[in-house]
Design the sequence.
């Protein structure tokens, strides 16, 4: 972690996650949209109980100038409905589990 992030200068917290996996997911989505993101407290999660809960939750931070765009993207991510159990490929008819966005049989993306 850089000193700049640790001190908060130039960076702002945009999300507090319940788990490190959720924080990494948010960070990865932001980075896929060209928003530089960093995590804080990801290693403190294991100390929950020894450290106050709200101080040990993983946080996602972005540069101040990206705060509005990041917050909008996070709202969009959080408002998407949960995916169903399975989906059927329109190209080959193969049934895939909801965790897959691309058909394993023919490589066509869900909904194409």
Sequence:
């Amino acid at each position: 972690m850089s000193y700049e992030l640790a001190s908060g200068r130039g960076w702002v917290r945009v999300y507090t996650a319940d788990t490190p996996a959720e924080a990494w997911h948010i960070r990865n989505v932001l980075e896929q949209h060209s928003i530089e993101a960093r995590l804080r407290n990801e290693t403190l999660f294991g100390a929950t109980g020894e450290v106050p809960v709200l101080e040990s939750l993983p946080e996602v931070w972005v540069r101040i100038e990206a705060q509005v765009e990041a917050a909008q993207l996070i709202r969009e991510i959080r408002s998407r409905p949960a995916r169903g159990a399975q989906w059927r490929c329109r190209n080959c008819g193969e049934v895939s589990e909801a965790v897959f966005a691309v058909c394993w049989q023919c490589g066509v993306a869900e909904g194409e």
Helices lie at 3-7, 20-32, 53-56, 67-79.
